[in-house]
Amino acid sequence: MKTLHVATSYTDRARQAATYRKGRVLLAGDAAHIHSPLGGEGLNTGLSDAMNLGWKLAATVKGWAPESLLDTFTTERHPAGAWALDWTRAQVAIMRPEPHARAIASVIRDLMKTREGTSYFIEKISGASLHYSLPGDHPLIGYSTPDLLFADGSRVGDLLHDGIGLLLDLQGRDELHTLSQRWNGLVKYAARQAEDNNNLSTFLVRPDGFVAWATDAEPDMIALEETLGAWFGRPV
Fold first, then answer.
1. What 8-state DSSP symbol labels residue 151?
2. In a domain? residue 27
3. Cβ neighbours of residue 180 under 8 Å, at least 6 residues apart?
4. What would the pLDDT profile of 180-233 be if each residue is shown by its tens digit?
């Protein structure tokens, strides 16, 4: 007779925590959501959880975070986790050995051969289409920052290595520089000329790379100041 020490099974147990925060307890990655490992969505979603939570947790520990900052971890990442569960459930469904699943898989393969279908799946798998519901009506708000090419050959990504916010001014306004100094050490101001900015004037990027505020016109200084305070606390 032999003793069984470890037993595992491979199946789809899609589950998600109701909330990612309760007081001082925070859940991320597999602790917050589990699902089929198809496509590596669990790894990608977990890393995105860490990017979202990391700077907010650091801000709280260092004492400059607005009171509600940690609560935005659940409001932003819970919908993303729910989407990952649905995405992997769809993959599991078309892998079942039955005629209906094979028919749906055939239709999906045909769609993936089209330009629109390929773009759709690439955007979903890469996370490029991930959107957080943030205040503001500019179409860029809530999306990952565009990696604009500047006239000097550098890109937006080169300005995000410090792990702090970025106020990118594509017009070079002294008043924006002055305003950013009130959050010195938390927000970096940069004036750059973009090769192609699609009429974009100014935008504010959070430490996790997502756009918190943007405008194509003359900046509304009051709205920008309120947004800076909402994400980076009271000004110095």
1. T
2. yes
3. 167, 187, 188, 189, 228
4. 999 999 999 999 988 876 788 999 999 999 999 999 999 999 999 999 999 999
Phi, psi of 92 (to 5 degrees): -65, -40
Nearest to 178 by CA among 137, 219, 135: 219
Q: How far apart are CA 152 and CA 155, in angstroms?
A: 9
Range of the domain at 188: 156-232
Q: Are residues 90 and 161 in the same domain?
A: no
Alpha carbon distance 41, 189 (integer Å): 35
Q: Edge to edge, what strands does the sheet with 165-169 contain?
A: 187-191, 165-169, 202-205, 211-215
Domain end position, chosen among 44, 73, 95 = 95
Please name the residue that has the structure tokens 């898989």. 105
How confident is the model over 133-146, as a mean pLDDT? 94
From residue 155, alpha-carbon distances to 57, 110, 148, 217 in Å are: 28, 36, 5, 22
Chain-centre distance for alpha carbon 71: 15
The string of pLDDT tens digits covering residues 99-136 is 999 999 999 999 999 999 999 988 888 888 899 999 99
What is the tally of structural domains in the chain?
2
**DSSP tag of 70:** T
